[in-house]
Amino acid sequence: MLSQDYDRIFLSPPHLGRHELNYVHKAIEDNWVAPAGPNLTGFEQDICHYTGAAHCVALASGTAAIHLGLVLLGVGPGDEVLCPSFTFVATANPILYLGATPVFVDSEPTTWNMCPDRLREAIEDRIRQGKKPKALILVHLYGMPAQLDQLLAIAELYAIPVLEDAAEALGSRYDGRRLGTFGAVGVFSFNGNKIITTSGGGALVTDNQEWAEKTRFLATQAKDPAPYYQHSAVGYNYRLSNILAGIGRGQMELIDSRVKSRRETYAWYQKNLRDVPALQFGPTEPALGSSNRWLTTVTLDPHYTTVTPEQVRQHLETHNIESRPLWKPLHQQPLFAQAPMYGGSVCADLFTRGLCLPSGSAMTETDLHRVAGALREILLP
Ligand SMILES: *Cc1c(COP(=O)(O)O)cnc(C)c1O
């Protein structure tokens, strides 16, 4: 059979359930198609209920949520913001929107997230240079909880407020608590490739009621309370539509089963590919952490193979299977060539050796066997 005869296996496609359409239908029937309405409120309540956050504001994207989150933390022109290098560019772009500078920090090899030692080093060095960082962005990459105990203790020691980019980590936990609720501000994304989706969307969560109100205000053009349009702050058009929030409500009914499925996919690959010594499964959960395993990621062990991740990717492509390199570190991006970086070898090595495997929650056992078979073809001598 030719590879074209197979259906394509995507990396992480949207996976809709049965109830999204009911919520969307109701919104149209009731004429609630603006960025306000019962789906929006309902979706925000669902997220609060699920995560334990006191307040949630649904927004047009995760990027918008990071942008407004940094505004809440007081980040402005000339400030420095600590940020992992090993992440998607959307984590750091809002730092630039605000005229601030990212200060990048390397990963540690267990969770692949920010290294506490490098973080301490970065903070002390910035202070020595006369400037304390204004905020710290923590990311839980691929859904994997960062070493929160250590990272939060350092942030607290230096009184640096934390924004938690949990865009990939809805449903993950640390010490029993949902990720996104550890920082002063937490952020989720409902982009099409994430564990649940609104087609495009995001949310900001916080326990600070004033901040939640300020976020709603800023996200709807910062209209002062007056009968005419009056503005004394810069506003944005960042609210999620009530239609899309309807998709989100249907998806939130399914979050537990989506997390279960992604975790099972990771376990399946790990079990069924243990005869392939070149494949190392990672990252690893920290002592108190549980990952939603948004994407199954692997690194190639150079002791067992000279094949590169790019060759594996191209080989999977001949079987009509999508895979993707790990995030290219931000300190290696032309966009951030001037930004300070603390460490760098850990995330640079992960990028050279790593690959994301298809991980969609609708994958069948047949799909998984197809991926495993194609990997065996190229990685077993
Ligand atoms: C997806 C993602 C974002 C941005 O979310 P959007 O909804 O796509 O704007 C931010 N950070 C990380 C780590 C992401 O994976």
From TrEMBL:
Where on the tree of life does the source sit, at the highest rank?
Bacteria
Q: Which InterPro entries did the record assign?
A: DegT/StrS_aminotransferase (IPR000653), PyrdxlP-dep_Trfase (IPR015424), PyrdxlP-dep_Trfase_major (IPR015421), PyrdxlP-dep_Trfase_small (IPR015422)
Q: What does this protein need as cofactor? A: pyridoxal 5'-phosphate
Q: What is its EC number?
A: 2.6.1.102
Identify residues that carry N6-(pyridoxal phosphate)lysine: 194
Which residue ranges traverse the bilayer? none
User: What are the BP-aspect GO terms?
Assistant: polysaccharide biosynthetic process
- The UniProt entry's coiled-coil ranges are none
Q: What's in the keyword line of the UniProt record? A: Aminotransferase, Pyridoxal phosphate, Transferase
Family that this chain belongs to: Belongs to the DegT/DnrJ/EryC1 family.
Mind telling me what this protein is named?
GDP-perosamine synthase
Protein source organism: Hymenobacter aquaticus
Q: What is the lineage of its organism?
A: Bacteria, Pseudomonadati, Bacteroidota, Cytophagia, Cytophagales
